[in-house]
């Protein structure tokens, strides 16, 4: 069902001015761009192992070189400055800083991030550091990975090392990026690293990611200045029913619990939702949640990072299972434990190269819901963007009008949500660069900057120039 409210922000036709101080940035992730997979003490992460396993990643691609950001970071910072970005959201590679996931930090790894942050600050670009964007040290996975409590404890120790090294330079921190993907795609459906397919392990991983987040927040707070900002980034699913039936409404409830409330409940309210326990009771009794865990998980945050690309449409199913159409990758194993009677449906209309529906109204609705559920928690769009089949023309130009239209529509949705009361403080375009797109390898291009992979040459796309003007003026032009 599509309501009038859902339709309102989808077709911008006039200029819109964003609030003064609205933060404009772009984002990347370490394994997707850095390369230098075995340099200066870095050891394999679960994504190195996964990508090197035949059949896991399209074309056998790996992040061994990626966009070679490890060596070309200064060029990339200069590009950010040229585009007028006010902030850059990047992630730290855990195995580059703490190769075994234990013990002291490797100074060469920290030095890379010190150079990067210093370069950003020299260009008046605010660094926004994410501690974990999926590259768990392989040695910790060999010891059990996120399904084990010890991994959460190691994560807090790693957070402390990062804060001690960079806390004098970085004032904005994010603990986890999209823990839903880490747990349910990594341990449930197996379409992300480490590629395990155990529904109970996925639920255990979700809890220990929650615990790791809470312990990391405490470690950061203990070491950072009082004015530092600490957050988490969630890929909140905007879930809609296919029809108005009671069965479809219950399907929405089930997926909302597994996709969203499994994290927002403990992190933001201090409790898991009871319906999640009931839905998964045949799989686990949740005894891995120990006394005191929720107190550790429920930590004050300065803002909530929101990643949004497309809505999710579900209905009641007959039990045969149609989870492979949920947009997260095909697998014989579901990333939705306890939801076998839920079917997923492709939303109507235009799609991106990922096959994801282009629907800015989902972002508007999501922001309004989060504002209602957590009225005192500011929001930042930490990822939003689209993959299209970009190419450089004979003149060396990359024109991507579909991406401009996508971003314009979603920024219009953000603007309308702000007008309607949502406290949204910033927007980070995904992604700064074309890069290694996980199991899709290098076949999908999300970047505002085109990367010629054989040479590493960077070419700002038309969308990059367009976005730079929006960031410079704070004004979203009409269609």
From TrEMBL:
Keywords: Carbohydrate metabolism, Cellulose degradation, Glycosidase, Hydrolase, Polysaccharide degradation. The keyword Cytoplasm does not apply. It is an enzyme of class 3 (hydrolase). Its EC number is 3.2.1.21. Residues 321-333 have a biased composition (Polar residues). It catalyses: Hydrolysis of terminal, non-reducing beta-D-glucosyl residues with release of beta-D-glucose. The active site is at 383 (nucleophile). The keyword Hydrolase applies. One of its GO terms (molecular function) is beta-glucosidase activity. SUPFAM superfamilies: (Trans)glycosidases. Residues 317-339 are annotated as: Disordered. Belongs to the glycosyl hydrolase 1 family. This is Beta-glucosidase. It comes from Streptomyces heilongjiangensis. The lineage of its organism: Bacteria, Bacillati, Actinomycetota, Actinomycetes, Kitasatosporales.
């Amino acid at each position: 069902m599509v309501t009038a409210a859902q339709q309102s922000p989808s077709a911008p036709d006039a200029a819109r001015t964003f609030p003064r101080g609205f933060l404009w940035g772009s984002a990347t992730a370490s394994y997707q761009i850095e390369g230098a997979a075995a340099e200066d003490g870095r050891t394999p992460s679960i994504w190195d192992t996964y990508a090197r396993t035949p059949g896991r990643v399209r074309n056998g691609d790996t992040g061994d070189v990626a966009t070679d950001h490890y060596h070309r970071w200064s060029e990339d910072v200069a590009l950010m400055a040229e585009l007028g970005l006010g902030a850059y959201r990047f992630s730290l590679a855990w195995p580059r800083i703490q190769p075994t996931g234990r013990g002291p930090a490797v100074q060469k790894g920290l030095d890379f991030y010190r150079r990067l942050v210093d370069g950003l600050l020299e260009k008046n670009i605010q660094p926004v550091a994410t501690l974990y964007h999926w590259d768990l040290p392989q040695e910790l996975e060999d010891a059990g990975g996120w399904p084990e409590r010890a991994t959460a404890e190691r994560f807090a120790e790693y957070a402390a090392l990062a804060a001690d090294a960079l806390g004098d330079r970085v004032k904005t921190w994010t603990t986890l990026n999209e823990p839903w993907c880490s747990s349910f795609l990594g341990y449930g459906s197996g379409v992300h690293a480490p590629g395990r397919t155990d529904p109970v392990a996925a639920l255990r991983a979700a809890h220990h990611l929650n615990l790791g987040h809470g312990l990391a927040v405490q470690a950061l707070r203990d070491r950072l200045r009082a004015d530092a900002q600490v957050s988490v980034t969630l890929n909140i699913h905007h879930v809609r029913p296919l029809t108005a039936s009671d069965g479809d409404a219950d399907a929405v409830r089930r997926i909302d619990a597994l996709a969203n409330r499994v994290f927002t409940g403990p992190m933001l309210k201090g409790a898991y939702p009871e319906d999640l326990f009931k839905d998964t009771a045949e799989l686990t009794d949740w005894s891995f949640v120990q006394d005191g865990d929720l107190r550790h998980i429920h930590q004050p945050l300065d803002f909530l990072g929101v990643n949004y690309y497309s809505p999710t449409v579900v209905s009641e199913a007959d039990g045969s299972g149609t989870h492979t159409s949920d947009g997260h990758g095909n697998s014989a194993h579901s990333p939705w434990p306890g939801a076998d009677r839920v079917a997923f449906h492709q939303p109507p209309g235009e799609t991106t190269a990922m096959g994801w529906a282009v629907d800015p109204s989902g972002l508007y609705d999501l922001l309004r819901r989060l504002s209602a559920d957590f009225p005192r928690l500011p929001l930042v769009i930490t990822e939003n963007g689209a993959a299209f089949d970009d190419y450089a023309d004979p003149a060396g130009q990359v024109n991507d009008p579909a991406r401009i239209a996508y971003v314009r529509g979603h920024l219009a949705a953000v603007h309308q949500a702000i007008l309607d009361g949502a406290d949204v403080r910033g927007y980070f375009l995904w992604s700064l660069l074309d890069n290694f797109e996980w199991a899709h390898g290098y076949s999908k291009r999300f970047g505002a900057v085109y990367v010629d992979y054989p040479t590493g040459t960077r070419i700002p796309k038309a969308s990059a120039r367009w976005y730079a003007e929006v960031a410079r003026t704070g004004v979203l032009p009409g269609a």
